[in-house]
Amino acid sequence: MRKTAKRGLDIEAILTDLYDSEINGSISWVWEGGFAAVLGDPPRRELAFRTIAEAVAWLRDRACEFYPDSDFARKYGGFV
């Protein structure tokens, strides 16, 4: 996994790899409650991440858990 010096993980690479593996997901923000992330179909939701990086890490970890046979999990499974 590529890492950036500032953020600790490559958010763009993770989101692109989720997309390339055809794993549905989204991140949204709530003005008073941080960020929310949704993964998969049926959707699994987690609320109240303080940062985008936390939300992306959750997406990465849950994608590896729920899609263990995907190219994404093969690439990122060792980081979970």
Characterization of the model:
With 80 residues, the chain is an alpha+beta fold. It has a single domain, classed as Double Stranded RNA Binding Domain. It has helices at residues 11-20, 52-66, 71-76; strands spanning 25-30, 34-39, 44-49. The chain has a three-stranded antiparallel beta sheet with strand order 1-2-3, with helices on one face. Strand 1 (25-30) and strand 2 form a beta hairpin. Helix 1 (11-20) runs parallel beside helix 2 (52-66). It is globular and about 35 Å long.
List keywords for this structure.
about 80 residues, alpha+beta, Double Stranded RNA Binding Domain, disordered N terminus
DSSP summary: helix tally: 3
The CATH class label is: Alpha Beta
Strand content: 15-25%
Shape: globular
Query: What summary fits the major beta sheet?
Result: 3 strands, antiparallel
Strand order of the largest sheet: 1-2-3
Q: Would you identify the CATH architecture?
A: 2-Layer Sandwich
- Order of helical and strand elements: HEEEHH
Low-confidence stretches: 1-7
Give the averaged pLDDT, no decimals.
87
Question: What structural class do the secondary elements suggest?
Answer: alpha+beta
* Overall strand count: 3
Question: Which fold name fills CATH's third level, the topology?
Answer: Double Stranded RNA Binding Domain
